[in-house]
Amino acid sequence: MTEQDLVRGCIQGKRKFQEELFQRYAGKMLAVCMRYARHRMEAEDMLQDAFVKVFEHLGQFQFKGALEGWIRRIVVNTAIKAYDRKSFTHEQIGIDPTWDSASDLPLSDMQLQEEDLLNLINRLPDGYRIVFNLYAIEGYSHQEIAEMLGIQESTSRSQLVKARKQLQTQLFELHKVAV
Q1: What top-level class would CATH report for the domain 3-81?
Q2: Tens digits of per-residue pLDDT, 112-142?
Q3: Helix, strand, or coil here: 165?
Q4: What value, to the nearest 5°, has the Cα angle with vertex 38 and ends 32 and 41?
Q5: Domain range list for the chain
Q6: Is domain 87-178 annotated with CATH 1.10.10.10?
């Protein structure tokens, strides 16, 4: 079944096509939600909300790009809206200013799995995590992130720097425990 057939069937309200669309993309989109959520249940809620929006707005999809990319954008926007935009201004974190160089971290000695890295990212404060995901994983620019979140570009940059520093600190601590 082609994407066009799938979309048309969904727009016509055919349950078989809607189930197929969900089955085809839900796994990948749950992985996206997991990067923004604190736990699986929260990610599943985000996924459900996102697919409600997908089905509501599927008639707007114009086949100018990949359906998966269009769905991913809805999922990311839904995940972002799950958090209060003002939470960025209230975050505080203590970072040791004496250790801020990734070169100080002997990563060659570490065997870091994808799941371990995702767990470290999930421990970041919400604002840091969202900006880090949008920039480093989703590939958005700071200008796009600022527009999406209703913040200044400088805030996006600052949140990314702080996220990276905290990740470096977490990796350093993880390395100390492993040694």
Answers
A1: mainly alpha
A2: 677 778 888 888 998 899 999 999 988 999 9
A3: helix
A4: 80
A5: 3-81, 87-178
A6: yes
